[in-house]
Amino acid sequence: MKAILIVGIALIVSASSINCPSRGLSPDTRKAMLDKHNELRSQNALGRARDGSTGRNAPRARNMYKLQWDCNLERIAQNWANRCQFQHSRSNLGENLYASGPPTNNDGPARDASASWWDELREIGIGRYSANFRFSNSVSSRGVGHYTQMAWARTTKLGCGHAKCSRMNIVVCNYSPAGNYVGQQIYIVGNPCQKDSDCTTYRNSRCSAKEGLCYIAGGRAEELHIGFNQTLVV
Question: Which CDD domains has this protein been placed in (predicted)?
């Protein structure tokens, strides 16, 4: 696995104003992609996301975190998208890819990508194959890896890029910390947060009870619990 070194000060921006040095996405599209990710994570946490494998809603999630936009992740995603190769970068980041055609100058494909990835839960599902929502090779083989990365509870940062290539549009989203580690849970099945003390994965965590999501109130994501070193599937 190739590691990517991110140097300099991390640029994490709020949903109300998302401006990054990269020109691959407009500020409005950055906000739309971030908002869509968090909207879908909130639906999942609150038990309102349909699981196609069971015909019922997926179980509620405990300790699922709200994402923040990260300009460094966007830069990495945009540089990879600019290669116009529909293949994974094999980095140490979580990564989702989306392609559509014909090529277009607008941000439509970037806005469509999030919904397309999440549809894997509704169209394929997980609950029938993993009742406790633990990621495994069998879950990965079902073709739900885009959804599982989007829903990975410990992930806190998102950055995406979009390139118009000769035959298609390519959208790349990077996630940190990465998800899709074999043996780890996509999320812990349980009640979503109602108060700050319910959020126990990272220091300085707060709860957005309406959304059922935890978030980090400033500073970097410092884990309170040591994670497991497992195999990453992309």
Answer: CAP_euk
